[in-house]
Design a protein that fits this description.
Length: 78
């Protein structure tokens, strides 16, 4: 994470965008710019997000994430 944050500072970016199966992107003067970083795995993305959150925030994040990754019960009705 510190390497990515150093990149944010050195490039003068206002935001760092991360996501599983995507390369990190920087927002520089309102424009999203690709980095030279490889695609992040789901596990790497989770580690990066957890590094920024407190324990209560991690619990909330996990709860919300689990709700959005559960199969939709209505699908069985099709």
């Amino acid at each position: 994470m510190s390497d990515l944050l150093q990149l944010v500072v050195s490039e003068g970016a206002s935001d760092l965008h991360i996501g599983a199966a995507f390369e990190p992107m920087l927002r520089i003067q309102r424009v999203l710019e690709k980095t030279n970083h490889r695609l992040l795995t789901p596990d790497e993305t989770t580690v990066l997000v957890y590094a920024l959150l407190s324990d209560p925030q991690i619990e909330t994040f996990d709860l919300v994430l689990s709700r959005h990754t559960q199969p939709d019960d209505r699908i069985d009705d099709l």
